[in-house]
Amino acid sequence: MKNDLGYFPQNALHNAPARVNDAIDVARARASELAAMPDKTYMNFVRALADNDAKLTELLMPIYHLDSVMNSDETKQIMNEIIPPLSAYGSDMARHRGIYEGFKYIRDNEFDALNAAQQKLVTDVIRAFEIAGVNLPADKQARLKEIAAEMSKMSNDFSNNVIEANKNFKLKIMDETKLGDMPTADRATARIDDWWEFSLLDSHYVAVMTFVTDRDLRKQTHDARMARAPENMDIITHMLSLRVERAGILGYETHADLVFEDRSAPSPAAVKTFLKDLRNRAAASAKQDRAELAARAATDGIKDFAPHDAAFYGRLVRTEQYDLDESVVREYFETGRTTDAIFDMLAEMFDIKFTERKVPLWHPDAKYYDMSRDGKIIAGFFIDLPTRETKSPGAWMNSFRPHYVDANGVRHLPKVLNVGNFPAATKDTPSLMATKDVATLFHEIGHGLHGLLSAVDELDLSGTAVDRDVVEFPSSFLEYFWNSPVTLKRIARHYKTGEPMPDELIEKIIKSDRFMRGTEMVWKTEYSLFDMEIHTQGKMTAQQIRSAFDTARPADSITPGPSYDRPLTAFMHPFAHSYSAGYYSYLWAEQMAADAYIAANGNPFDKDLMHRYRDTVLAMGGTKKMDEIYREFMGRDPKPDSLLKFYGLK
Ligand SMILES: [Zn+2]
Predict the structure, then answer these.
(1) How far apart are CA 201 and CA 57, in angstroms?
(2) Which residues keep their CB under 5 angstroms from ion ligand 1?
(3) Which one of 139, 320, 559, 615 has the fewest CB atoms closer than 10 angstroms to its CB?
């Protein structure tokens, strides 16, 4: 097979809408041809359908990717043109009677001859068709389509309303002394002339809440943030009622029951118990955090400590208690050198090797690596880490192509990518990462490995194609290692001198990382419980929803970091992203990550454990439920106390 691993099409945007439309026509015709074919087998039908999808994806992925990392009027225009025909295609395929019948034919005639992964795939696909309503009478199917269209419009509106509210607010600061200890980089993003203007965008909001010395200005900003997008309340009420209706049409009692068909957690009730237990056990520690911050604020004469003081005093107490200077820490994390050091570490952990290869990509910042094992190249890894104006915010992992074997038995090696928005180099300094950036880089590489080390033959079960509530397990697991003493000793080097990080500084990083973990846990469980609560009931009025939120998240709650501080009407996960009855997923995945981390004793070079991790969790993708894979990995279930222990709450 020719090695196309480092290949990125240089003409991906050329004539894109026409090429996509043609490709959709071809894919549609091929799907119908396969559905009508007599003598279906797993290979000539299931695998051939996957190949059909793969062809379309191969064309689409570079376009999506360029829209995210090199956004322009051209990419926006292309996306506007291709999304409607693609959604129509997706929606038709999800209810394609002939394909559904084809899968049932395979189940009824060939099931026993299939391996376990293939059996799971066939079963999953049949269930997905049934959840999409393939067996319902025409009028009900039509209603489901209407609901889907309405929901996708409402999600979009919800998100746009929040974005607008973020932009519309302006906090003007004329007096520079009020900016306190705000770092130069944060000031620069808000500078207008000889004054500063802050919006409610996360980065601005965090800077104001953490550094602005004028308490009234913080209160004003906090109040505005908590009152964002009130018009979203109507959307929430309407969305919940549509979700209840859809669940009913499909024969489920609640929306949560419906979406839990594709989850690793056993049931909505089990998740609620899990969350309540965590919250109760973290409550005392969160209370203590609050008392500590309030006591520090009192020394400044503040008698009525409030949420708008939390980030400001959180920073002060953290600095005073742990004496950790982020600007010094950064000097040990030059982005290029740190990335190389992480690759080096992964090589030792998993017996793999990354070799950079110069190939034409989409931007000079992007890099490509061949990944090999036992001297054989088995995957391609693309990274694009520095921030750019044309890049979507945040960091993510994606695959141009997962590992799979096609209908002709040809193996396709995975092409995986990691994108970040890490600090760009300036004329005086190279790109230096903050601690949160280092953690993010580990996190995304953790997802990346899930794609890179996949050994799954079935395209739709490969790599990160696992249940929503366990997809964050490999990313959290690797992230946890970023500040283990063994890792820091190995990867942190001063960018000028090359000196390793002093032990004293390592100790400070580790200690300060435990700061306010109880508050963080309580906050995560509060939002998660609210999300479970509203999706395990029938229709609710706006008032009932509001009161469920206020019960889950009392007004005097404080938060570990202000970017998490959000009102109901700006809670994107369940209403704008597809995390309804799913916000618990992070904690659910973290219990496995924490358990495995504790078993490794924080040592990334525990070879025996890491090799088992590679050969089970990373290799097996979604071929089995994650709890089964976990038992193969560790020989047992995660211990219930591991997560609290990792958070330092036990
Ligand atoms: Zn993640």
Answers:
(1) 33
(2) 472, 475
(3) 139
Q: Determine the distance separating the centroid of ligand 1 and the alpha carbon of 385, expressed in angstroms.
A: 16
Q: Both tokens of residue 257? A: 């029951």
Q: Is residue 2's pLDDT more than 60?
A: no
Residue whose token pair is 């890099």: 367
φ and ψ at residue 420, rounded to 5 degrees: -135, 175
Q: How many CA atoms lie within 13 A of 518 on its CB side?
A: 15
Decide the pairing of beta strands 415-422 and 376-386. Answer: parallel
CA of 198 from ligand 1 middle (Å) equals 28
User: What does the domain layout of the chain look like in residue ranges?
Assistant: 16-135, 169-226, 330-513
The rounded distance, in Å, linking the Cα atoms of 337 and 149 is 47
CB atoms within 10 A of CB 321: 14
3-class state of residue 383 by DSSP: strand
pLDDT in tens, 88-126: 999 899 999 999 999 999 999 999 999 999 999 999 999
CA of 439 from ligand 1 middle (Å) equals: 11
Rounded to an integer, what distance in angstroms lies between the CA atom of residue 324 and that of residue 329?
Answer: 8
Ligand 1 centroid distance, CA of 39 (Å): 42
- Tokens for 440? 């993010």
Q: Ligand 1 centre from 472 Cα, in Å?
A: 5
Got the DSSP string for 195-245? SEEE-SSHHHHHHHHHH---HHHHHHHHHHHHT--TTHHHHHHHHHHHHHH
Q: How far is the CA of 488 from the centre of ligand 1 (A)?
A: 22
CA of 433 to the centre of ligand 1 (A): 19
Q: Report the separation in Å between the CA atom of 414 and the middle of ligand 1, taken as the mean of its atom positions.
A: 19
The predicted-structure confidence for 325-367, as pLDDT tens digits, reads as follows 888 999 999 999 999 999 999 999 999 999 999 999 999 999 9
Query: What secondary structure does DSSP assign to 300-334, as a single string?
Result: TT-SS--HHHHHHHHHHHHHHHH---HHHHHTT-B
CATH of 16-135, picked from 3.20.20.70, 1.10.760.10, 1.20.1050.40, 1.10.3720.10, is 1.20.1050.40
> What CATH number should be reported for the domain whose range is 330-513?
1.10.1370.40
Other beta carbons less than 10 A from residue 325's beta carbon: 12
Structure tokens at 478: 């690797």
Q: How far is the CA of 171 from the centre of ligand 1 (A)?
A: 32
How close is the Cα of 49 to the center of ligand 1, in Å?
A: 29
- CB within 8 Å of 132: residues ≥ 6 apart: 94, 95, 144
Residues 571-597: what's their mean pLDDT?
Answer: 95
How does residue 41 score in pLDDT terms, banded at 50, 70 and 90? very high
- From the CA of 278, how far away is ligand 1's center (Å)? 21
Which of the pair, 51 or 3, is modelled with greater confidence? 51
pLDDT digit string (tens) for 221-250? Answer: 999 999 999 999 999 999 999 999 999 999
What's the gap in Å between 37 CA and the centre of ligand 1?
A: 40
Q: Kindly report the number of other CB atoms within 10 A of residue 34's CB atom.
A: 19
| 447 Cα–ligand 1 center, Å | 7
pLDDT reported for residue 1: 46
